[in-house]
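Notes, p. 3: input format for complexes.
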Amino acid sequence: MNIGILASGGDGAGMNYCLYNLYKKLYKKHKIFLFNRGFYGLINNDILNYNFKYLKKHKDDGGIIIKTSRCKEFEMKKYQDIAVENIVKNKIDLIIVMGGNGSFNGAKELIVRSVKVMFIPCTIDNDVNDSEYCIGFDTACYNCANFIKHVNTTMQSFNRTCIYEAMGRECPAIAITVGNMVDADYLYVGNSCSVENCIDVLRIAKQKKDAPIVILRENLVDIKYLRQEIEKKLNIDVRTCIVGYVQRGGKPTKLEKLNAKKFAETCAKNINQKNYNNSIVVKNNKFVAKKIIF
Ligand code: F6P
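Output follows (294 residues plus 6-O-phosphono-beta-D-fructofuranose):
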C-alpha cells in the first residue's frame, strides 16, 4: 500500500515518537509519504523525503518534524478536491491524520471522497471525542505543573497569591489535572465558577497559606480583571502568569512516549488487518480502533 502521513492542528510532545513508531511498523511492507505542514502538504503536493534514520534521530524531540498547520483552506470544498487529486496522482491508498478535533473533521472529508483514513488523536487539550487520551496531554500537564511550582517559590517569598492561566481552549482537562498536581486552592475552569466564589475561597485559603494558587482555564474571564477584583476585595498582593506555550513545547514524558507508541502500533496493526477508516482511541485504558462514523 502507499500510505501518507500528516500532522494537523496544535502539536503535542510525543508526536515524533508516534511518527517514528508508525514508520517503523509500516515502512517495510508499505511505501510511506510524509506530507509537510498537514493539509497544506496535501493541497500543495508537498512531500518530505525524510528517511527512517532521520525519524529515529528526532523521535524524542518535542514538536513534530513533519510540521503542522491550521489549514483554513482545507475547510473549502475546492481545496479538499485538489488535495484528493494529489492523493490519486501519487497513488496513495490511505492517509494517517495526526491531530485534534478540527483535523478529525478534515479526515472525514477525505473519507467522503473515498480516501481510506486512520486518525490518531493528538492535542494537549485532551478533548477528542471517544478517546480518554490524546498525545501531548501528559507532557502539557507536567510542563504546566512544573512551571507553576517554579514560579510559586518567588510567590512564597512575598506571600503573594498568584493566578496561573492554563491553555486548553474550552476544555478544562489541563487546568483540573494540574490543579490536583500542585494542590491549587481554586480552579476557575468552567461557567459554574465565578469571581465572587473565587474571592470567597481565597479569603479562607489566605488564612492558612502564604501563597495560594488559582488556576484559570483560558477563554473564561480576563485574568487582569480577576486580579484587580481579588486585590480590591481582599486587600492582598496578587500576581498573574499566563503559562502559555511552555505547556505545548518540550520533550515528551515517559508516559507520553509509551502512549504514543501504543497509538502507533494499534494503528499499524489495524492497517495490516485491512481495518480502515478508524480513529485509534483509548477506551477503558485500552488502545482500540473505532470506526469513524458520520
Ligand atoms: O492545540 C491546542 C491549543 O494549544 C489550545 O490549548 C490553545 O487554545 C490553542 O491550541 C492555541 O493555538 P495556536 O497556537 O494556534 O494559537
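Residues 46 and 294 are 29 Å apart (CA to CA).
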